[in-house]
Each structure stands twice: as structure tokens, then as C-alpha cells.
Amino acid sequence: MTAREKERLRTGLLFISPWLLGFAALTLYPLLASVWFSLCDYSVLTEPVFLGTENYRELWRDEVFWLALRNTVVFAAVSIPLGTALAIGLAVLLNQPVRGRGLYRTIFFLPSLVPAISLAILWQWLLNGSVGLVNEVLQWPLSLVNLVAGTSLRAPDWLNDPSWALWGLVLTGLWGAGNAMVIYLAGLQEIPAELYEAAEMDGANAWQRFVNITLPLLTPVIFFNVIMGLIGSLQTFAVPYILTNGGDGPGRSLLFLATYIYQSAFDYWNMGYASALALVLFLLILALTLVVVRFGEKRVHYAGR
Amino acid sequence: MPDADPIARHRNRWFAVILLVGFSIVFFLPFAWMVSTSLKPLNETMSLPPRWLPSEPQWQNYPDAMRAMGPFWLYARNSLMLALLNVVGTVASSALVAYGFSRIEWRGRDSVFLLLLATMMIPFPVVMVPVYTLFRELGWIGTFKPLWVPAFLAGAFNVFLLRQFFLSIPKDLTEAARMDGCGEFRIFWQIILPLAKPALLTVALFQFMATWNDFLGPLIFLVRQEQFTLALGLQNFQSVQGGTAWHWLMAASTLVVLPVVFLFFLTQRTFIRGISTTGFK
Amino acid sequence: MPVFAAALALLHLIGGAALAAPGGDGRVVVEYWEKWTGLEADVMQGVVDDFNASQDRIFVRMLTVSRMDQKMMLATAGGVPPDIAGLWAMYLTSYVENNALMPLDKLAREAGLHEDDYIPVFWQMCRQKGHLWALPTTPTVTALHWNKKMFRAAGLDPEQPPRTLEELEEFNERLTKRAADGSLEQIGHMPQEPGWWTRDFSNWFGGPVWDGGGRLLLDQQPSIDHFRWAATYPQRFGGDDMNRLRGAFGNFASPQNPFFNGKVAMIVQGVWMNNFIRQYAEPDFEYGVAPFPTPAARPGPPVSVADCDVLVIPNGARHPREAMEFIAYTQTRAAMEKLCLGQKKFTPLREVSPGFVENHPHPYLQTFIDLANSPNVRPILALPTVLQYSNDLATYMNLLLLGRLGPDEARAALQERQQRALDQKTERWNRVKDKRLARWRAAS
User: Fold this and answer.
1) Nearest CA of chain C to the CA of A235: how many Å?
2) Is the CB of residue B281 less than 8 Å away from at least one CB of chain A?
């Protein structure tokens, strides 16, 4: 290294030193400490005591852990595709030459700004089984179906029914699709109009144009959003926690890995077990992100690259 | 069937308008319901079938809810203080770090940057336990420090955003200064920062929202009610009320949403542009 | 930057007014966290005010805290606990094992508090592992509450509560009504309303679910019978039907409380229920209170579960002596009766002032006092794994009452999982036991 290179290295490191410090103290150390804690019995109020792999063995036979893992994966698997479809759909609609687009955009976007706490309390109210707005609205189509088909379908008591609570949470998530929508909209506006004009000349209808032009050219943005959505949905905590008044839902249907980490650490005071859970969450995020990246590499269409 | 003809185009547009209006209603109804409930007398919140509008708006619900929540203004002050500290800390530190990752060439820079990107995959719940024990060792539990000191240590996402922006600033602008013997910090401070104002504002906005909305951090680090943020105070109110006083809960929720909405309308352009740019590498 | 300056100014403005704290006159400020809200908090505040006015060295500052069980542990672990906390008795074991409390034996002795002054079950609840950790404030025991109008409407004698569990189920059938479409309109009784004592319900079938040491007893007959009894409900009334009925229930503290508005005729409740009835039920609401019956095969003195609000001093409290002074004050007959009368409960003290019961606004107070003194009264379950156990039990019970899980399966799964959780805590405790016990002995 020349003196100049050394000088640059020193300056560079100096500039990034805040991050280096943060990385060491708030990421690297916690990860290493998690590994150590996960091998211990640790309640915070007493010193960690080495146990070996006991926490992991417990994890393996703990049906609640598997349930939390399942809920976490199912929630991501349901909410990401639905959220992506809704966000793209809204963006495509907003990209049409109609009047008042600014207003529509604002209306679609605003819910994504609502703080988790207000969002959860509001949806707890909207999803109320007897006087909730959601069921009030659902009642019309349901009574129509009941009349025609002679069935006796009833709107679910969302947050008190083990089979429906997760879907209630998915609904709250869809309401916040506006953030991704804005990104997709920007992506759509990057697509050259000539492409559409040429396709129209060739006689492609709206759907064909969407599938053959819009979607492929949007793949980089979809890729980015899916990864962000994945990381976001795998760590979901605040909304289900507040929706259930600090619990985990009927039949633990709203128990997620992050919830279980929190419960193990701060309700049960098993920091060791919580650390083992945290490492599983970390590995899960890592693995799923890698899968998406691998999958994406082949399919993402980078224009002009 | 080609729809290059005006009729098909017309039809498509109408279809789009109908869908847009339909979705707008769906997306707007929850807000309307929140505000409408917040203005109802308690017995009308529970009436069956639900009433769309209060028989007479109960503006008194707002001051009542604030009183019932406990020290509302203290919560607001704590939230605001933390949000501002986080904004200052994040903007300052992330800009410095982004500069180090974009305008200075040093050995290993790009590998370290990859590492920074990778840390985005580590959400708070993963490191929550050791971070709690770390702050406990420092004697920080029950103080505000765990909620603002980390902001001064730069966030990966913000560094990423700012780096992209700094990279787009032409090199000639800084080379000349460097020739004149200007130090890196002066270049950063006098040339780059003024140019990066829109990006800095975006980061500031995002951070403000993130801190204002944060729930898990305050939940485990704060213990005294007079230190609660609005988010935690509202959750506290919810658990104390046990879901009885829906008119107050909705009023309180509205009050927590309001500053965010206000801020959005104040900075709409920066906001939307900021989010738009996050999707592109 | 002007925006920033403006924000700072705003901050300063709203901060200044709200920060002024009382007690800045050289007195020791004792911080007291209490879980109560509403009426119950107001009454305690009255006692606190009396204490603050009675002397000039100590100022007790009471703060209402939600999720006390957790917040206090967070604060204690973080080294910033309050001086006093109002806790529930069922958390004591877990707090003691986590080294979160100060033993009070010595302080209580110095303050002249004595076991003989208390109704035995409440004193017993405050003791763990040979030491005293808490002192009682307001007590309760559980009893059957029944809606007399619903009894009358069903052709039952409104003055005659069921004497055995079998009779209760007979009444239950007669009190249950279905609508034309088969859905439940009202029900005589169901275990999940309010379902607050599921942990302790095996006591009505002969015994608790924990031996007080390292073993759970869910594999014993009392729990077997309890779970099988609960499992008859989805069979008889339909799990989904009950759930739907419950979905229409209003909140506990509201006129839509299912007991007040005639949805459920018989419930298990504590002594505070009268307050809610006075506040929310129709003025002509008629109800009675009696021991919740045991199966005919298990005759004997009435069974009840005792619970208690307690005051503790967390480890690391800055002013333990001053804290104890206030706690001792609450244990005087005058203060205790002010507190319990205000909250319309009985007192944990054995002796009451003349006229306390006679002038008490609760019409059935004596029934509760008798239950508290019954030989078959049991302290509420205070497992070291209380939250884990409660969460698990709630989940399994929910599935059982929905008819999605059999009673023996649910019970076996609970026993298996929770015995493991308990074993873990027992191991943890055994590692530190000798050191701890020695330290506590020295401090007592």
C-alpha cells in the first residue's frame, strides 16, 4: 500500500466509523452473544449458565415454536403475493390517463403512513365480530349469497376465531400497500411509451400488453419490493401484538417468531431460549432471502444491462 | 382483438375510473370510520346495526380521551424529542458514512459496503435480547438513551439511499476542491451536503416516521409512564381500557395519526419522490 | 433549520408544564406502582393521601402501570424498580425465584405485623420458600353469581342456587335457549365466561394442579375430571355455537356484560362483581351469590379459590424502609378498611371494626367472608412458570371448548409441555437455591 492509499483508507474508515461502531455493538456483538446465550440458561436476573444444546433440543420438540414458524412463513407466503398484486394493480390503475390521479394516489398511500399502534387499534375495531365495519360491509354480499344459494354463511368473528385471525392480519397489511404502490408507479413511469404503442400496433390487448411489457420491465422493482416485504413480514410483531391486546391470538393463531422471541425473553424470562429462537429467525430470513435472490437472478429483467 | 380503436380505449378508461373510485372508497373507509367513531357517544359506538355517523359530533371525546390516556402532552413531547434526536443523529451519521462509501476510494470499500447491505437482513427482534442486556449493563434501561443513541451510529438503509445520491454527483465538482488541498471533511460539508439536501430531507422524513411509529423499542426499554412515547402511551391506554371505550381509543388513535398525515401533506413531493427512488439500484 | 428551531421551542413549551413532579419539599419520595385504574385506583389514592398527610418525612407517589407483572420485572432487571409495587399474588413465586423481590420478614416484624392478624389463606399466599415477600391489600374469593330473573323465567326457584355440579348442569339445560335457526340466544353456564379461574378449577374436583414443588398434577384425577367436565360443553352446546354467542358479548365493564344483559345466567366471579353490577347493570337487576358447587361425589365444606392484591418491595428499591412504612400503614385496620370498603370488598384481616359488615354496601359480603374462612379455600395457583402455564392452558382450553381437541389429549399435552417448563425453572432454582436461601436468612 502506498502512503496515499493508507491515507485514503484511514480517511474512509474515519468517515464510516459511526457505522462501524454501530455494526460492532448492535449487530456483530448481539449475533455472537445470541449464539452464546442460546447455549445457556439465562434469565437476565441471574448469570448465564452453560447448558449445551438443551435449548435447541427443546426447540425441536416445542410445538409452539413450530406453530410460530408455520404462522410466520404462512403469513409471509400469503401477504407478500397478495400485497404485491394489489400494489401493482393500484399502480397500473394510477398510471392510466384519468383525472384526479393525485387524489387517488394520496388516498391509496396514506394508510401506509399510519403508525402500527393506531393501525392495530383501528383494525381491532374494524374487525370486531359483532359491530365491526368489515362485517357490516360483508353482510350485504353474504346475505345475497345466502338468499340465492340457500346457505347460511356468516361473517367470521375475525380476531376470536383461530381459523380467521391470520386473515384479519393479512387484511390490515393490504391496507398499507400504498408504499409499494408508489415504488411500482415510479417503475411504470420509466417504461417507454413507445413500447406500448408498438404493441398496440401489433394488436395486443390491454392484458397482453400488461403481461408482455409491463410485468417483465417491472421485475427489478418487484424483486426489490419482495425482498423488503419478506424481511418486513418475517419480523412482524407490533400489529398482531396490539390486535390481540398483547397476546398471541385465539389458538395462538397470531403467534409469530418475533412474538415468541418477545414472550420467551420478556414474559417468561428465558433469554437463552429466546436467543435460540432469534437465531432461527435470522437463519430463516437469510435462507428465504437467498432463495428469492437466486430465483430472481434468473428472471429479473434489467433493461439495457 | 385490437383495442387501438377509440371505443376500446374509452371503455378501458371508464373501467379504470370505476376501479379507482371503488378502491378509493375501500382505502378511505377505515379513516372515515375511525374519525366517525371518535365523535360518537359511547352507546352509539356499539349500536347494532352500526351507525355511520354520530347523531351529534362529540368533540369533547378528544380532550376526554387525552385526559384518560394519562399525561398526553408528556407522551407527545417524548415522541417528538426522540423523533428529532433520531432525525439529527441519523442524518448526520448516515451522511458521513455514505460519504465514506461513495466519494472516497479505499481498499476493501465495496466488500464492506456489501456487509452493510447484508445487515439490512437482521431485523431488531433478532438482536433484541443481547441488545437489551447490553443496555442493561450500561444502566440505560428506563432511560431514553437506547432509543436515540443508536441513531447516531447510522442506519444501513439510509446509508444506502444517501450513497446512491452521492454517487450521482459529478466527480469534477469535488476534484477541483481536492486539487486546491481541501480536506475531505470540508468537501463533505461545503460541497456534497448542500447538493444533497433533497436526499437528506428524505432520510430525515423516513427516520421521523420510523421513530414516531416505533413500538417494540419503547416497549422493552422504557418502564416509567412519564417516559412513554405516544405509541406506547396509546397501547397502555388500550390495555387499561381493555377495549371498552372505543370512542376514546379512536380519538386517541386519530391524534397519533394526525401529525404523520400533517407532515405528509407538508412534504408530499419529497416524500413520494423519496419512496420512488428507493426501488431502484 | 428554522423548522428544527421551532420544533425545539415547541418541545420546550409542552415539556415545561408537564414535568413538574410533586414532593419536592425535602421529603423522601417513595414511588409506588399500582395496576389499578378507575374506582380502585381512586380509593387507593385516598389512602395514599391520608398517609402523606399523616407525617412529613415521606411522600408516596402512586402511578398506574399496565401489564404490571411484566413492567416491574423489566424495571427490576434494568435496575430501576419502583419502591413499592402492587402485584397479583399469583406472580409471587416467579418473582421470588427470579430474585426480584426483597424478603419482608424483618421489616414486617419491626412494623409489628403478625400472621395471627390475617385470615390464614391470605397470609399463606404472601409466603414463599419460608419467607414473607408481600402483604395483602384487597382480597377476593370466587363464588357462583346467578341471575335471579333468568331463573324465574326458566321456572326455577330464584332463591335456590344449585347445590351440586350435577344440579348446576340440570339448571344449565333449562336456562339455555336457542333461536329458531338453532343458534344460542342465552346459556345457563359456560366455563369460558369469564374463564378467569381455569387454572384453579381442578380444586372443585378435589385438588390443585401443582404440588407446590417440582411436579404438575394434571395427570391426577381432579384435573382429569375437570377437563372431561369442560369437554361436555362443546358436545352439549356446540363449540362454534358457544363461540358465536361469545362473539356477541359486550365488554366486561359495560352494560353489555353477558351476565348483566341476560346472556349467561350463572358465572364464577369475585367480590368486586357487585361494583360492576351497581355501575353497569339495570337498576332492577337481581342476583344471588353462593359457593360454586362441587360434584355430588365430592361433598364437604364449600370450595373456593382465594386471590389477593399484594404490595411488594422490589430488589434494588431505593427506599425500602420508607416503602415498608407505607405498607405497614396500609395494614392498619383503619386504612385497610377504608381501602376495602372503598373498593367494596372484605378485608384480609381477621378482625373487623364493629359494623363493617352490617354497613357494607355489598349485600353478600358475609358469603365471601365465610368462603375465605372455609377449610376448602385454596390459594390461587402461583407457579414459577405462571405466564407460560396460563398461555398454554388458555390455548388448549380454547381448542377443547371449540370441540377441536379431546379432554385427555389436551390435558396430556399440557402436562407434558408444562412439566418440562417447570423442570427447567426448578433446575434454575436449584442452581442458586443455597446461596439465595442463605442470603435471605441473613436478611431476615
Assistant:
1) 21
2) yes
B242 has a chain A CB within 8 A of its CB: yes
The model's confidence at residue B280, banded by pLDDT at 50, 70 and 90, is low
Residue C331 class from Cβ within 10 Å (0-12 exposed, 13-18 middle, 19+ buried)?
A: buried
CATH number of the domain that A89 lies in? 1.10.3720.10
Verify whether the Cβ–Cβ distance B141 to C78 is below 8 Å: yes
Q: Which among A96, A122, A275 is the nearest to B34, CB-wise?
A: A122
Question: Could you tell me the residue range of the domain that residue A195 belongs to?
Answer: 62-299
Partner residue facing B239 (CB), from A114, A182, A245? A245
Residue linked to cell 413531547? B77
Neighbors of chain A with 3 or more C-beta pairs under 8 Å: B, C
Backbone dihedral angles phi then psi of residue B252, each to the nearest 5 degrees = -65, -40
How crowded is residue B254: how many other Cβ atoms within 10 Å of its Cβ?
A: 21
Q: Is A231's Cβ below 8 Å from some Cβ in B?
A: yes
Contact (CB<8Å) C71/B223: yes
Strand partners for C266: C146
Tens of pLDDT, residues A263-281? 999 999 999 999 999 999 9
Burial B17-48 (b: 16+ CB within 10 A, else e): beebeebbeebebbbebbebbbbbeeebbbee
> C-alpha angle A255/A256/A261, rounded to 5°?
100
Does A162 fall in a domain? yes
CATH numbers and ranges of domains, chain C: 23-141+307-379 (3.40.190.10), 143-305+382-425 (3.40.190.10)
Q: Which residues of chain C have pLDDT under 50?
A: 1, 14-23
**With an 8 Å Cβ cutoff, is B52 touching chain A?**
no
Q: How confident is the model at residue A13 (pLDDT cuts 50, 70, 90)?
A: very high
Do the Cβ atoms of C98 and A269 come within 8 Å? yes
Q: Is A7 on the interface with B (CB under 8 A)?
A: no
Taking the Cβ of residue A69 and every Cβ of chain C, the question of whether any pair is shorter than 8 Å is answered with: no
CATH architecture assignment, domain B69-242? Orthogonal Bundle (1.10)
- At C10 the pLDDT is 53
**C chain contacts of residue A246, beta-carbon cutoff 8 Å:** 67
Q: Which residues of chain B are within 8 Å of residue C78 when distances are taken between CB atoms?
A: 136, 141-142, 223
- Whether A191 has its CB under 8 Å from any CB of chain B: the answer is no
Res B2: pLDDT:
43
- Does B77 sit within 8 Å of C14, measured CB to CB? yes
pLDDT at residue A304, rounded to an integer = 45
Of B13, B47, B231, the CB nearest to A98: B13
Q: From residue B207, how far is each of A230, B188, B213, B229 by CA, in Å?
A: 21, 21, 10, 16
* C-alpha–C-alpha distance, residues A35 and A39, integer Å: 7
**Total domains present in chain A:** 1
pLDDT in tens, B4-16: 567 777 887 888 9
What pairing do the DSSP bridges indicate for beta strands C184-186 and C177-178? antiparallel
Is the residue at A212 inside a domain?
yes
DSSP C292: P
Cross-chain Cβ contact C18/B73 below 8 Å: yes
Closest CA to C338 of C35, C46, C49: C46
Backbone φ and ψ for A160, nearest 5 degrees, come out as -110, 5
Tell me whether C100 touches chain A (CB under 8 Å). yes
CB pairs under 8 A between A and C: 67
Q: Which residue of A has its CA nearest to B18?
A: A93
CA–CA separation, C138 and C347 (whole Å): 6
> Each residue of A151-183: pLDDT tens digit?
878 888 898 888 999 999 999 999 999 999 999
pTM of the complete model beyond 0.80: yes
Can you tell me the distance from the alpha carbon of A23 to that of A7, in angstroms, rounded to the nearest whole number? 23
